[in-house]
Amino acid sequence: MHQEVVNNLESIQGALLRMNRSIQSEGTFGIMKNNRWYKRIVRKGMEQVRLEIFLVSIGHNLYKYHNKRLRLKKAA
């Protein structure tokens, strides 16, 4: 089973999937961690952790939406 996993990861398809995954998620988490100073989850329990990540994600999306509206207003 271990050899099958290694073969899948080393295949061309596995390399493409790994590359695509890193492109999709790392940018957003990097922005949250470095630009928004969000370093660690402070709540305990699965429901509270979900709530905290949900709130941080909403804040990130609202920030992006606000900046997009400002850019469109300046361009008009």
From TrEMBL:
Q: Which InterPro entries match?
A: Tnp_DDE_dom
Protein name stated in the entry: Transposase DDE domain-containing protein
Q: Where is the Transposase DDE domain?
A: 2-66
Top-level taxonomic group: Bacteria
